[in-house]
Structure formats: structure tokens, C-alpha cells
Amino acid sequence: MNSLIHLDEVQKAGFVGDEIIFTSSALDKTTMSKISESGAQLNLDSPNQLKQWQNMFPDIRVGIRCNIGDKVEPYSTRAGFFIDKQSRLGFTVEEMQSIGNKSFIRGLHLYVGTDIFDIKYFLNCYTELIELSKIFPNLEYLNFGGGFGVSEDGETNFDVRTFGVKVTELMQKAS
């Protein structure tokens, strides 16, 4: 989720703490405080957000959204770029490498785009994220986000079964 309205709704539905994942590109101090109070799993979007969070909550580890556009050939979808220099979302590889206390990072989040049917592209991105995870000594999770293609013509379908098999193979290899 990405707003306090969404946070409130999922809490009303009975979800609590780290059953909730919150990733947003615009967080002010009030929003950060409410996320902290909720115990939600938070993925920050920029070095400035990370500094602000660490100043406010120095003992609460967080995840970061990763922009791995330097590591893969990024796709532009009908919604634009989600990774690449053209995207404003997420920590660049250079920014990830320059984080001082890498132990503070709890997880890595990746959203490669929207409306993508190419399973190989997802796997290439996930493989690069797994490689980057090696620089963070205390990770608890890798969050691969979504972005799966949805057919407008009813003829093209995202192959969920093949995707599941391939991601399982990748994660077994990474483990």
C-alpha cells in the first residue's frame, strides 16, 4: 500500500503489524509516525527518506525500494519507467552502495514496472536484486513487487504457472 487511507483500510480489515507492507514515494513526518505506530513493514524510496526515518526512529530498521536500472535493460510500459534514470522511484545502485549502516536495512523491495508479460525480464531483475542483496548483512526479506501483465484484448495472458516455477527455482538457487 502507499497511503494512510490504504493503511487505515487494511487495519480495519484486520491486518496488523508486519502483515502490512507500505511503500510510497512521498512520506512526511506525520505519515512516517503513523507507519511506525502501525508496525507495518516499511520500504523507503530515497536517501532523504532514510535519513529522516533514522533521525526519527533510530532503532527501527526498514526496507528500501531499489532502482536497478543500471543493472538491466529497463522496459518502458504504458505507465512509463519504474526503474532506470528516467524513474524517480527508489534508491539507485550507487545510493544503495553508499548507505553507511547497511545493517539498518531490513529488506529490499523491487517494482520493475506495470503490465509486463516478459517473465525473463522479471527474472533478470530479480537476479540483479539478489546480487545486490549481498551488500546488506542483515536482510530479512526480498520483496519482488508486482507488475504482471493484464490483457486488454483477452488473448494475451500472463503465465502465472511458469512464473511461479521459475521464481521458485531462482529463490532455491539464491538460498
Quaternary status: single chain
Quick one: CATH superfamily? Alanine racemase
% residues in beta strands: 5-15%
**What's the helical proportion of residues?**
25-40%
**Which class do the helix and strand fractions yield?**
alpha/beta
Total number of helices: 6
Please report the first level of CATH classification, the CATH class.
Answer: Alpha Beta
Average pLDDT score: 89
CATH architectural name: Alpha-Beta Barrel
Features:
175 residues; alpha/beta; TIM Barrel; six-stranded parallel beta sheet; 6 helices; globular
Outline of this structure?
With 175 residues, the protein is an alpha/beta fold. It contains six helices and six strands. Helix 5 links the parallel strand 5 and strand 6.
Question: What can you tell me about this protein's structure?
Answer:
With 175 residues, this protein is α/β, with parallel strands linked by helices. The chain has a single domain (4-174), classed as Alanine racemase (TIM Barrel). The chain has six helices and six strands. Strands 1, 2, 3, 4, 5 and 6 form a six-stranded parallel β-sheet that branches. α3 links the parallel β2 (41-44) and β3 (62-67). α5 runs parallel beside α6. The chain is globular and about 50 Å long. 26% of the residues are buried. The mean pLDDT is 89.
